[in-house]
Amino acid sequence: MKMLHKAKVIALAGLMIGSLLMTGCGKDSTASAPAQAVSPEVSVVVVNPQRVLITTELPGRTSAFRIAEIRPQVSGLVQKRLFTEGSEVKAGQVLYQIDPAPFQAALDNAKAALARAEANLFTLRSRVERYKELLADKAVSQQDYDDAAAALTQVVADIQYSQATVETASINLGYTKVTAPISGRIGKSNVTDGAIVTAYQALALATIQQLDPIYADMPQSTIDLLRLKSRLKDGLLNQHEKDQNKVKLILEDGTSYPLEGTLQFSDVTVDSTTGSVILRVVFPNPEGVILPGMFVQAVIKEGVNEQAILIPQQGVSRDPKGNPYALIVDAESKAGYRPLTLDRAIGDKWLVSSGLAHGDRLIVEGLLMLRPGTVVKASPFDPTQAGQVPAAGADAPSKKRSEGDV
Fold this sequence. Notes:
Helix content: 25-40%
Largest sheet: 6 strands, mixed
CATH architecture of the largest domain: Beta Barrel
Number of domains: 4
Oligomer: single chain
CATH class of the largest domain: Mainly Beta
Radius of gyration: 47 Å
């Protein structure tokens, strides 16, 4: 019995071993190998230099083209104000009438004195001529002749004095009509009828401002001014363009002013408190839309960059130190690192000063978790499909990073 039991155990063990061997032999020898890594998909744009007009938008305020403060040039009583406050006045228009009576009397008195001096002139001149003839015959003394000549000289001087007095009195009489020295819009009157005014008083009677054309003054930092001069010196900007000095204006409500202005001059003195210089632009203002003191934005042309490189802003990232960089696809289909120097934002693009070259394939989508040296699968960037969820297995396109914003 023991021998029979041992034989059964051995047989059962053999069956189990055979079963295991059969299972091992029946296993599929074509089982799949470990899955290979899938290259991430990215969207690229090809860098192509283009001709771009470079502009600068500067804030500023408007001021009147000309300002005239009206003050009396003679003292007297204001008889009448002859204009409507806030209206347009013309140069030479009478604004105030000062009582002319005392000035008319002074003019009449000066004219009478002149007539009296002129009346004595003929008599004295004839006497001097007769004395001169008689002096040759010793009929009159030298003293008589000298007295007559002195009297004639005195009368001539009196006539000249009286003529100057008449002219002064006439000018003062004319000053009783206070006129507008320039054309423009006049403000409120600071005096009323019946007021007593004095010549050249501190308080202006009214103020006239010429608003067509009108000035817009914009401060520009000296740093930007030096940078502009450096670009011009290096040949990066061309300022020999038509209408280079034309300037566009944006009003306080964000609307564009329909008429272009002309850059008149750049100040030569730097404001020590702000480190800026003033740029003055003249704008036509026939409808009076622009008023003095308005806050505006002026779009000034710096020049044309013939080889400007513009790239989408979502293609620019920043390292932990804040330095901008971009990733490109190199000839081996690997992601390459490119440090960038950015000039400014133009619309939704960055103007790149250095770091990229013509023909570079810039990665603008698929940047999430992408590292330099990674083999990628590149496809052209389609702006119409930007932001859509990609198919399974593709990296989600990255949105514009906040660190890439202006």
